[in-house]
Batch of 4 targets.
Target 1
Amino acid sequence: MQEYTVAVVGIGMVGGEMLKVLRQQNFPAKEFRVMATRARKEVVHGYEYDVIPASADAFDGVDFAFFAGTEGAKGASQQYGWAAVERGCVVIDNGDDFRMDERVPLVVPEVNPEHLKRHNGFVANPNCSTIQMVVALAPLHRRARIKRVVVSTYQAVSGTGRAAVAELERQARDYAAGNEMKNEVYPHRIAFNCIPQVSSLKDAFPGYYGEEIKMIREPRKMFDDPDMAITATCVRVPVFKSHSEAVNVQFEEKLTAEEAREILSNAPGVTVVDDPGNSVYPLAIDAAEKDDVFVGRIRQDTSAENCIDFWCVSDNIRKGAALNAVQIAEKMIEMGLVKK
């Protein structure tokens, strides 16, 4: 088997998860080159790495470079991404700098692997909330074609990074001790609260925060449907890991809840957990550390024609970032799209 030199740029929550997933997936790597802003040694999931400073020259001889951009930790791919491509490297970027760039395919392997054929050495990972939604939507879209999507998200603090996880932990301890709860990462206290703001307001979509805009624009690109009607409301909730979403979908033709359940039960990357009478449905705590998107509460929406509702949950750091990036590389190798 061909082996590859693999770089991971960034050693935060996503970068660490990428290294873990690469080893768990037995990715054919002959060398791991870990880059960050400064040189040091780091132990990540039981393995010690010599971290080197990121630079254009550091990508010499690298076959795959995974850029682990997250909210508040973006920009490395802007600085080094195309320089890495020029050195013969395939870049897979988890940040949002190039997702809507026409040169860059935006890919979820279960959804649109054919777009990888258009790669120019650079592939983008979609937003974590988008990934889990399109994994569930794609098999339904192939069957009945989507007309409109209304989605509300309930997003874990790990999507913002380690500082947000620490803030929720600290606030929970302060609440239990009767102490004042201070907020630094978020504009309001997150412990025992919900904040209907993820990212910042954008002029292009008045009234929508950045995360909502990603969920509108990214599926359109992946489904090759620039006019697909989508609206989103994204909410940060006091959960450490795994995003949850309530999705309402209207189709061009009739699709029953039973048909949708059967389609999803046979869809790659999806696990159906749907026995609401016995309080069985996807939970954030059950999806953590798992690869799949978990779907349940599948039901007919009787308020509109050709509509169903469902609930989906997925680990936002794993499938929503690290695993999807590694799966892109695996799919490129499988499709013979990587030159050596």
Note: Residues 128-144 form the longest helix (17 residues).
Target 2
Amino acid sequence: MQDTTQQNPGSTTQGRAPGKRIHRVAIAGLGLVGLEVARHLDAGIPGMVLSAVGVRDRAKATGLLAGLKTMPVLADIDALEPHADIVVECAPAALLASAIEPFLLRGKKAIVLSAGALLSNPTLIDLADAHGGQILVPSGALLGLDAVSAAAEGTIHSVKMVTRKPTRGLMGAPYLTDNNIRIDDIRQPLRVFSGSPRDAAIGFPANLNVAVALSLAGIGPDATTLEIWADPALERNTHSIEVQADSAHFSMAIENIPSANPKTGLITALSVVAMLRRFESPLRIG
């Protein structure tokens, strides 16, 4: 399918400091997160320009992006690489490889939100290593990944995460269907899963990317322990983490405000924006 090119910002140098590179950014997927990232890029992030968006329905995408100052190229998700230096993957987990593999083959960077899908696509990490590319996983709806990464430079004895979600945020998860777990009419909190982030990534592909990101920052997806609770009284997604290490013992908790999609918190898109902003920032914290 041919790309629909309207106005491609390309590698403009207008309005930037001498010697600073402008990174062309593509967004793979135009759901709530992708659209929010697109709007922030269009409003202005130093050193970044929105150059392309990977979509299935171009007519719908044109309408969603109509308010932008500059219309990016609209292309198939697997055809974004020629138009960008960085791809932000905001697509369904099943499309992860097709979205980022062309970028990794060219030694480019991929910001990945479907962290859980990395566990079933480990060759993507090998591909990045072989070609000089890089996979970046933002904090998403979590906090403290920098502290966990620091602790991992020593010895981490244990990492436990407990996730509690409103029932509507877990509806339709394959694990619930496969195990005949009904949560639509529960009146009390119900633990629906206890195990590892690796297993959760398969059973809850739209919900637990944060657990996989935590495990990759620390002791891995098999040694990290995870509980998932459905709570009919909750309106927000909550995550609590306990880390026992030789350098520190610490606990963290976050309560995320859901977006219009109950499976995704508003802070997820903002974590991508913050990562992009740090690329060219003269002061970088964390």
Note: The radius of gyration is 19 Å.
Target 3
Amino acid sequence: MDAIRVTVRRGQTVEARHRVHVRSTDGNAAGEDVHCFLRSSLKPIQAVPLDESYDDVSDEEIAVACASHQAEPDQLAAVRRLLERAGAGIDDLECGTQAGRPEGPLGHNCSGKHAGMLAVSRAHGFPMHSYREQTHPVQRWIAKLVGPADVAIDGCGVPTFAMPLTQISSLFASIPPRIAEAMRVRPDLVGGTGADDTDLMLALPGWIAKRGAEGLFCAVSPEGVGWTFKVEDGASRALRPAIGRVLGVDAFRAVPLRNGLGEVVGSIE
């Protein structure tokens, strides 16, 4: 099957087209088996050391460690709880800052992941800094979970990994049950209001999902089938229509195109 074509219309005129490639662990496929970085879709795997290091870690702490959050109050509160567990402060976060976000590094969309890495370091007596280096025990632990892959540095400073979509789907399907359950219980912490992954988990109870940069989206069905969607040109606006078509989510099939006043001026479908 060819890649899924998502069309952007302003009025009745076609303004842009995007190609979306798909792979699943049960053999469904569209387009090519693209080789790409997991980026933030890796976060549920990066949270495995946190889950394995403590017996009492909460759903909220795990979910926010998996999050690309929007600095909503509940999300920031969950990151603070992880920092307390780590015996660390906001200044210990090595994720940097993002414009328009509150409280410096705490407001960064990856702060939960970084706080989780600090908590793992404390649990095992690893050096707290620099926990993001490839040679640090936490990063070596994650690399072992991922397996053979190309490695580069993500936007928040930690290693990320590249592999074909088929392999990404299998890796995402391997997320441990405890982490998957936390994501199901607190989908609002994983993304936030209006986020693609949060909205999919709300629309399809029992599923888990995590979006990544450059138009990547991973999901696992209640039956354990892993799915990966990749927009070829990196435009994440094309994800919802493709997901809606493949997974049968009617609310995702057509996305209104709005102007700065909030008026609908076209569609993405």
Note: The radius of gyration is 18 Å.
Target 4
Amino acid sequence: MLAIEQLPASARQFVEGLQAKTAGLETENSRLQRLLQLKDEQIKLLNFRLFGPKSEKLSSAQIPLLLAEISLSAGEVQQEAELPQEQKDHPLPKAKKPRPNHPGREKLAEHLERREEIIACCPEDCACAKCGAERPVIGYETREELACEPAKFWVRVVKREKRGSHCLEEQGVVTAPAPAQIVPKSKLSNEFVIEILAQKYHQHLPVYRQCATLAEDHGIELSRKTLTDAVLAAGGLLSAVVRAQAAELVAGAYLQADETTVPCQTPEKCRAARWSSTFKWDAGGPDRGSS
């Protein structure tokens, strides 16, 4: 075996570098060993504070199971500490408690239409592997799932008949009357306008979001003005209903209103509202004192 002094200068320098790295690794290894020992002592102290003196008899395999418990009593720690050493080293996992009298999955509404969908077996499973005969269907594995159909849109092409006269030269053409529309001569049908109203006032979906949904999901480009004009036209037709409701309310002997205030969430808007109120108070106009 050659001594280091007998090696060439380059080899000797390389070996000396390896020895220095080895010494550094050994030093780091000893430091980590001391750190692990310190951590073990801290864990033992923490277990002593959590579980009491009986924790000294517990093994390292029992501690994680005890820490996983939501609530732990001193009696349970003592019971674990008195187990045989073999069970301490290889503790059994906690079994899940069975749910007694579980009602099972809730059934879907009975009034919904049922559409059966039969999924056939693979072709290789339809024939007997022994004799090759077709295997008979003996039943089905049945389950129910709630399904839906997306909204469908189509274009209604309205063709009004035009009839001519062979004996009248002037005013001899008659045309079928146009059907009544919420928005006369509009490209929106009555049921589409009703759908817009239901989405806006029943589902609280603003018009601009309805335009975005039609464009993104269905590729239908409609301007916001077109939908807004339809909403205003429908409101004009419902004005008679509003007047009738107002007359019925006024005819009663007692009126009740919801006067819940809506506070401003933005500090800038609050300051602007206070400034506006102060300005009206100083101006002394007809709105004096109002906020």
Note: The first helix runs from residue 9 to 51.
